[in-house]
Amino acid sequence: MYRPIKDIARQIGLSVWALRTGCLSGRYPFIRAGGSRGTILIDPDELSDVLKRESQANIMRIIEPVSTSESTTCVPNTLQRIK
Length: 83
Prior knowledge:
mainly alpha; Arc Repressor Mutant, subunit A
């Protein structure tokens, strides 16, 4: 069941701004009630699915092995050229 963006933000702990920005950019699914400038309504189950997929993708990026040929040594307090 679709609910107003403020309720969803309160429920999941994201700001209304972050949710609205995500909706308008196409990142999160939503509908509008009342025309093109109407209230943004979000289905919490659909949003939950999107957030789970994003978190799983982020985890996979973190745990991917880094190629040793591309790794460089980081020296603190120095500027380094990025390729």
